[in-house]
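Hi C.,

You asked whether I'd gotten around to modeling the 488-residue construct. I have! Everything is below, sequence then structure, no commentary in between.
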Amino acid sequence: MTMDVAPIRTEAAQRPRPHRAVLAAVGEAWNDPAATLTDAVAMMNAAARQAAENIEVPDIFDDIDLVCANVGSDDETDPAGAAREYLGLVEARTLVAGIGIPQQRIVSAAILAVENGHAEAVLILGGEAKASALTAKRAGRDPITTPSGPGADTILSRDGEFIAKAELEAGLWDPYSQYAIMDSALARHDGLTPAEHQIQVSNLWARFNAVATNNPEARFASDYSADDLAETTADNRLLAFPYNKHHSTQWAVDHGVALIICTEELARRRGIDFDAILYPQVALDTSWGLSLSRRAEPHRWQTMNVLGAAASEHLGDDVASIPTSEIYSCFPAAVRIQQRELTLPVDGTPTVTGGMSFAGGPLNHFTYMATAAIARQMAGSTSSNALITTVSGLLTKGGLMVWGKEPHPDGALVADVAADARAATATVGVEDFDASLTPEDTDRVLGATVTGGFDPRLITLCRHEGRNAITSTPAGPDLVEDPAGALS
């Protein structure tokens, strides 16, 4: 079959397309590193085998024309090629996305490849074995590795700025500090005191934890109350106020996911159970992003608002009415801001897994993990649609998917909303980092956090003479001991 896996970057839905895509199979694989050490590619391979077993079509791999995978936290640069060799898919082409590429983009590319007739079936893989790697390191052993891939046929690399220079120089580079600043900006916009803010964040996360405790696959689902999450202890150390350790995504997991997207014709020909398949309704993302310090309104993420509006228009109904959702949950700010941009209830719990802090948040494929969980929940059910969102690291390049039990009459909306996202986002200039600048020297503090660790700091995002500026000063023991009181 002639294949074209060129970038999907279009501003239109590209209808009509000659075929209809379906999510035909999902597979997952978990590993207990205490029992068996493994690597990321092995997790992907196991998940792929499980996907074939789940649909009772062991030779479904004969139909695969394209294998897609994301680079993870290991050193494998061509996981798609490595998995292709292991699975014996010698005729399939490969596509690899680097770190920072929204996972939604891979799903969109797969849908278009199938619907435009460039591939009859696409295998999407994600895998992490960070728990095994840590176990091997602590035991003084080398982690297990499988042969590397020969080099992908197509590579998607991140373009544009991810973190501004001033953010790096101020020490505002780690995800928890960035999200803490966003959360603080939202709290300030809502008129919350730091203490009220901390309660609101931990109440949300306690609701996520309650879902995780009922998820047999959740890896970090101890029963936590909101008070447990808010209290800073040796086991729940301060990361960046209002976040303690249990507010953070948990990457130290061994997990693999496989998704098989194929034509509806192939699914029927293979006798796949149509009670379990899903149809893509919406597959949107943006190739444009903006770093935190360049946002005029750091409490907002207009890109997600644009994605939600486009999806709602295509569906003929507001995405907020979709009964099932998995909102990307690397940190509470990601959920809290997306809830507002998508007009979801702010007192809701938009997860079926329990979220990345409690279900586990593999670095390179939580969106696929969420898709597998949604597919399991919707199999054989009467639920009509389900919503999944994704972010690219630091609320930069977002994505949004809607899957349904029935095909949309106008087909799937697959598009890049970069132009609309750029037009909707208010930007501002950024001052070069000045270590002598203090919050008192600025016009207004937009967001602030106190970090823990070996070098505690008070970091603020401020408006200074019409531009954004970042201050970063050492935080003394009093500030670290009581950041809520100190930031009041």
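If it helps when you're writing up: The radius of gyration is 22 Å.

Thanks,
B.
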